[in-house]
Design goal:
It comes from Ramlibacter humi. This is 2TM domain-containing protein. The protein is an all-alpha fold. Helix 1 runs antiparallel to helix 2. The radius of gyration is 21 Å and the shape is elongated. It has one domain.
Length: 98
Amino acid sequence: MPALSPDEIDRLARKRAGAKLGWFLHAAVYVVVNLTLLAMSRYGWGNRPWSIFPVLGWGLGLALHGLSVFVIGQGSALREHLVRKERERLQREHGGPR
């Protein structure tokens, strides 16, 4: 991987930090909203625990968001490994760098 200039490092760091901050904000809203829905389900509307459905559905979305930010997001170790392997494979197939 080519060396990055200080400006590129700063831009990438800001982008990654923004993605992580976005996930933490998403998680905070998830907790607040779902605690409210749990209270409404338990003490308000209906006598069945319906709030489990939004908890599970939104929880899946939150988990996928976290996966995209922390595991396979731009600059993650897994993504960089896969890009490097694919680059090496293409260079072998097409006779080296061009």
